[in-house]
Amino acid sequence: MFGSTSRSANAYGKVGLETGVSTASPHKLIVMLFDGALTALALGHRAMQSGDIAVKGKSITQAMAIIDNGLRAALDKNAGGDIANNLDALYIYMSDRLLMANLNNKPELIEEVQHLLRELKSAWEAIGTGAPPVRQAPETVFAAAPLDPLAPRVQRVIKA
């Protein structure tokens, strides 16, 4: 008589999301994009492991759209200089890795992008609060190197 509970919950969630977006600061909107991409990737990863091809494709495509049309589109390359250009290259790299993950059913590529997004989200959140980013492994410090998404990744680990 009143419709399904899930339809009502979806409508409520959509209103909550729209309200959150309309009242969020630009900084918070970027955090919301990171959250959306990470949520889509988690769903895509689970779908890949369970063999649900339709959900896998839809979820990975959604994450790629958030990265390309949200995070990349938000970059101001004129004001951001090298940082914005490096982030742009990293976002392109992430989208390419997700395309390969989707085409070849490689969950490790999704995990790689999830890790990169979490690191960027943590740094972005720290910018907003003024606090240093929270490291996933506090006992290990990774030496910073210039970002070249096409170069092989080599990391030096320095124990703190």
Low-pLDDT residue spans: 1-17, 137-147, 154-160
Mean pLDDT: 78
Structural class: mainly alpha
- Side by side, the strands of the main sheet go 1-2
Structural features, described:
The protein has helices at residues 5-23, 26-50, 53-72, 77-104, 107-129; strands spanning 140-142, 157-159. The chain has 160 residues and is mainly alpha-helical. The protein has one domain (5-134): Flagellar protein FliS (Four Helix Bundle (Hemerythrin (Met), subunit A)). Helix 2 (26-50) runs antiparallel to helix 3, helix 2 (26-50) runs antiparallel to helix 5 and helix 4 packs antiparallel against helix 5 (107-129). It is globular. The termini are far apart.
Q: Layout of helices and strands, plus pairs?
A:
Blueprint: H1 5-23, H2 26-50, H3 53-72, H4 77-104, H5 107-129, E1 140-142, E2 157-159
Antiparallel strand pairs: 1-2
Helix pairs in contact: 2-3, 2-5, 3-4, 4-5
